[in-house]
Amino acid sequence: MLRTEKVLQLRGSQGRSVRVVREHYLRPDVPCGSALCRSACPRVGKLLSDDVTHYIVPDWKVVQDYLEILEFPELRGIVFMQTACQAVQHQRGRRQYNKLRNLLKDARHDCVMFFNEFHLLSYLPRDRGEPLEKWQTRSIYNASVWYYNHFLGHMPIVMVTEDEESIQLLGSETEGVFVISFKNYLDNFWPDLKAAHELFDSIVQSRRERESESQENNGKEYAEHVAVEALEAGIKSGRYIQGVLNVNKHRAQVEAFVRLQGASNKETDLKTDVLIYGTKARNRAIHGDVVAVELLPKNEWKGRTAALCENEMEDKTSGEVHCEPMPTGKVVGIIQKNWRDYVVTFPSQEESQSHGKNVQKILVTPWDYRIPKIRISTQQAEALQDFRVIVRIGSWESTSLYPNGHFVRVLGRIGDLEGEIQTILVENSISVSPFSEAQMCEMPVVVPEKPWKVAPEEEQKRIDLRDTHLVFSIDPKGCEDVDDALSVRLLPGGNLELGVHIADVTQFVAANSYTDIEARARATTYYLADRRYDMLPAVLSANVCSLLGNVDRYAVSVIWELDPTSYDIKKVRYDRTIIRSSYKLFYEAAQALLEGDLSAADEIPELKELGEKARKQKLSELVWAIRKLTDLARHLRAKRDSCGALELEGVEVRVQLDDKKNIDDLIPRQPLEVHETIAECMILANHWVAKKIQEAFPHQALLRQHPPPRQEFFSELLECAKAKGFSIDTRSNKALADSLDKAVDPSDPLVNKLLRSMATQAMSNALYFSTGSCPEEEFSHYGLALDKYTHFTSPIRRYADIIVHRLLLAATLKEDKGGTREHLLANKELVELCRHINSRNKAAQHAQKQSTELFQCMYFKDKYPEREEHGRADGIIYSIRANGVLVFVPRYGIKGAAYMKTKEGQVLSCQSDGTCEWKPGSLQRFPSRIISTPTVGEAVTLSLFDHVTVKVCVQSSRCHADRIRLQIINCKPFKTSEIELSQDSHVSRADLVREVTKTVEEAQHAHDTARTMKIEEGYEEYRQTQGLSLYQLLEEIKDLALLDISVDSRA
């Protein structure tokens, strides 16, 4: 190893240039990263293929400008030199550098990074006075020559550069090393790769446009950004505020908000977001950018707009109604640009100016309302009018009204399902390419003739539960990726044993393997309305790791011993186990068995082939286990409730498809008690695992925190509750939970449901974090009322759980023969990983929501075209706006705007039978009601929580996603359907069961403990109730009570 020195010019905190001299070590054993190597280079990580005709080495400028083209999988054998990668990192920012890093990690792309500045023979010191750019090109060429000589001339090297002088000087200097331009390379080596040529032309044209525009246009459309060093100093002094720009998608041309971040903001008095009003004040910042904001004087502060809007693209501000003024500012600089790929649509009619013979400047409209129009140059404007297209923004000069971008590729035709799904994926930066050959080679071989079996050595290491425990799973119908299973049994000493058994994914996904790297990049399984994109290959997610019925599987088990009466936990253990799930149940079947409907056993495949006697015994055991788990879950929930756990409400809709994948119905999720049973068992496991790994690794454990919400976010909830006479206390989670429990309108169960939904909207997002990154008092989970929490129970579909499994195994294994601890992440690495996983989880949630909205629109387009008088439903008003109301439609799980005033000034007028029509008039808005006064006829008053009849319509758009629009057609409630009645009964069921079972809890425990595992035939014949237990008797009494209540309420 040779020691030398490297001189760096770094920028100090005050913006001054600082000369830094650092030690630089050179060594001869830096791996070349090629399968062609016949030397003694270490073979670690990805290796370049040896079956290509040449290796390509891009110069630093090519990597910076044409990385999108280098991402094409057709381009193989790419060597990224360390010098070029560092140039991207220092000159193009973190986002571009991360794209390059992800490309290098991706097993599907045949490329590697060579550390040329650390190799003894490829390092080239910079000459005194030599320009940095010249040295970078010379250094990359020198490393290319070393590469060629290293392979003994068996592999030609093609260096591509944009430096004409280097092409002339170096082009023929070394035999076997060719130096050519990138365009020349594409023309000669890839003449048929049309997409690459089109993208190259688009990038070049975009760059030329920027250069000519900056020369010709001296007029400033926007203020210049403050220099970076001045921004940093201003943020430290408190003059500027740092935060992330969030554009209001409903008023994208007018309203944006900056959410504060950074330690410096703690010194300010601001406790709310900062309003950025208008595009000029936004100063070329794009949604998602990290910006520096300067507050305006208080007399210039504005308020949020209180009116509904149609996502107008024009800046129409006349006649708007604003709320109370709030801190308002302007963007003075962009700290970090978070630009991404954007899906756009070309204008249907040409609105461009010609530039050159066949080139057009076109303003394209992004699919996302929050992104401004983008100007691109293309020769294909007319041909692409009916397609969704991906573009990337290259720059946004102060002299330009719009950002400049370039065309990347075509996604699909507008309105086509696959094209729209791809749009959703791209807009959320979700990559779902097929798993690579390298990843599939790491998978176990499983074929019907040779099913997977437990390895004999694993039988020696693991605890075998196959013959001792009744293990079963409860999941949604048709679920293939079964992460978790449960067991419960009475121990010989009289205590109860509860087991949560989780698929042992880490047995098949080794740390830093190709599969692990890909799973880390995806971070989660993406669930859309009609499909899913797995985090792991199907051979794992739907087969070897999935805890299917009647097959042996590896698991990581958390097993508690509990008091049979009080359910107090006496001891807990964590083991690697072998299990065989006896039943793969779905929720509805488990709920039916819980309620005593034994006919549900006909839908359990594992029971069908048994004889009558064996079937009855097995069924009895299963019913006992489900009921015991449910009873235990009630106790666990009651304990968390006493600490302040929140029962929140979300809108979940399932798209029901027929055999031909057509939309059959939209079904809101109906809450069942078994949902709570499974959830409580998983919460218990996650909580205990969190305590274990934090205890073992106090500074590098991955936990999940849920910070308390900001109090101003509760304003709408408090206002709505006040309108109904309820008082909501938001000072703590316990106070909020108690006041929500009391906010019940006996005549309308939806009132409490909506209030809980508003409380959910006010919540902060739960986030993954490293325990070394924040103090222990911030570890807690506000919603679950737990001091420590993590995710352990779904490693098939969440990468965070894989990390937690590795931490747990490292914490509990007595002998670390597999080097488990060596692969644990340090705090700094874990912080970065948590940031990535949090980002991917947010993207997954957005994609799932957007795909559901897509199918909702398709459903109403197909079922209820505009010409028919259908699509009517009952809606409940939950928010008042200046020109309309927001309505929740329980039947379809839809929330949407219903206008009460048109642009022409007409207002909603109701006839004597409740039907509505539009008439000239005026609106008056109050906190809890809105009054529509037509010039002719009686005034109409609609209040919060009023029920109205709405018509569900679809607002189509060429450039954006279709959206649901609600139209009030009758001021009276729509007739209640049977479906809604059943929903209401299910909502009441959980609350009533809790209350009823409290008085008989001890009797139920004694009854279950003393009861035998088999239902006696005499009892079966002579029992007076239809169920199997006291619990079922209470259920029957409760059902009668529900009937009486519903009859009274209708009267």
UniProtKB/TrEMBL annotation:
Keywords: Cytoplasm, Exonuclease, Exosome, Hydrolase, Magnesium, Nuclease, RNA-binding. Its EC number is 3.1.13.1. Its main location: cytoplasm. One of its GO terms (cellular component) is cytoplasmic exosome (RNase complex). Transmembrane segments: none annotated. SUPFAM superfamilies: Nucleic acid-binding proteins (SSF50249). PROSITE patterns: RIBONUCLEASE_II. It is an enzyme of class 3 (hydrolase). PANTHER family: DIS3-LIKE EXONUCLEASE 1, RIBONUCLEASE. This is DIS3-like exonuclease 1. It comes from Phrynocephalus forsythii.
